[in-house]
Amino acid sequence: MFRIIQIVALFFLLTSCAESQNLSTYERLSGNWSMNKTLPERGTRTDNYSWGKGVSVINSSIDIDLGGDEPFIRIGGMGTFPILETEDSSDRIRVVFFFGRGNFNVEYIFHFVEDNVFWIENNSSLEIHTRGEDVLFYRNTGPFHYDK
Q: Domain total for the chain?
C-alpha cells in the first residue's frame, strides 16, 4: 500500500513540474516588459489586455499580447504593430511584426534567460529598441507573471 502511495505521489510531482515547464507561447511572451525589475511609482499607464489589466512604463515598455483576434506588439514611443507570425523554441521565441511606419516587416528574437526575463536580438536594419544580451527586459505584468 505504501508503495502505491509513493508511485501516485511521484506521478503528481512529475506532472506538475512538467506542466510548469510547458507554457504556451501566449503565456511565455504576452505581457508588459521593461528594463525595470519593478514598476516605477510614476510614468506608467494601465490598459486592458487579453489577460486583464496590464501596466506599462510610458515610452519604454514593450507590450505584447498574443491573445485575441489581432496579436500585437507595442513598442514604447514608436507605436503598436500587428504580429504576423511567431515561432517558439525552448529558450527563445521568434516574432515577425509589420512596422507600419516604414511598410516593412521586422523580426525580433526574444531569448529567455528565465520565465520573466528576456533579451532581444533584432534581425532587421531598423534600430527601434535597445537590444543585446546585456540589455534585459523584465515582465512587470502579464498572464504568467510571478515574483521569485
A: 1
